[in-house]
Structures are given as C-alpha cells and as structure tokens.
Amino acid sequence: MTDSYSLETVNAMSPKDFAETFGDIAEHSPWVAEGAESHRPFQNREEMITCFADVMQSANEETQLALIRAHPDLAGKAALSGELTEDSKNEQAGVGLDQLSEDEFKRFTDLNKRYLDRFGFPFIFAVKGATKFMILDAFVERLENDQAKEFETALQQIARIIRFRLEDRVG
Fold first, then answer.
1. Pick from 94, 100, 113, 82: nearest CA to 161
2. What are the catalytic residues?
3. 126 closest CA partner among 98, 152, 96, 88
C-alpha cells in the first residue's frame, strides 16, 4: 500500500522528495513529476492532477511516444515475469488480469500483438473500475482507429492512470 499525503505535505516537499515520491506516477517517466513539481504550490488535488497531465500533453511527440512505450502490455509477459511496477501490478490484479483462464490469456496475448504490430506501441487502458470484458471490447474497437487517433487515445488513458494514482496518493 502506498502512503497517502496531504496537499500541505506535498507542497512542502523538497524538489528531490517530490520527484522521489511521485516520479513513478507516470510509468517509468519521472520527467512528468519533475515538470509538475515546479508548478507548486498546488491549491488542491485537482490542480495537481491537471498539472501532471499538462506536463505530459505539452511534451514533444517523441517524448510522449517514449512514455506510451514505457507501459506494459495488459496481462502480458511483464506481468507473468513479475516485472510490473507496483502500481501496474495492483491495477491489473484489481480487475482480475492476474487470474485469466488460458483462453483469456491467449486472447489478450493475441490482441496485444495485433495492437503493437498496428500502432508500434502497447495498448494503454486505465483499468481501474473496468472489467476484463470492457478491456477486451476496447481492444477490438480501438484496433479500428487510425494512428493519430490511437496516439491521442493512449495519452488520454495515461492521463486517467495518472489521475487514479494521484487520487490514491494525495488526500
């Protein structure tokens, strides 16, 4: 379980402590927290969430693509080998992706591969509050998107992931 911080505590952190505390909010991309840190003090949690999303959205396309590619496949090899970040592991387990049947796992594996082959980056879905069926439906639907639409959708999903993670950590 990750610690929860008051907004007062967040605003009083040194830049180094802020980066260490929130550097993992955006998957393997501490630059998002480092960019948000300079906008303190935050008036409320919503402003903090918006600031993290704005930093991500204002990055250049190459940096955004690296952020998207830093995310693991859903129910993929990283999950099997235990290489997920703690947040990703908890999020995927929370919707049962760690308990798929063999057929379900094969379906996720196939969709992950098709998606990666089509777009060049992993399928991103903010799984909190979803079911495996909702995720599978989104996979099939989003495979029909064009590259630009799916790139933007991936960033929107990352913004949702950031929101959920900050809501969990900041009271």
1. 94
2. 71
3. 88
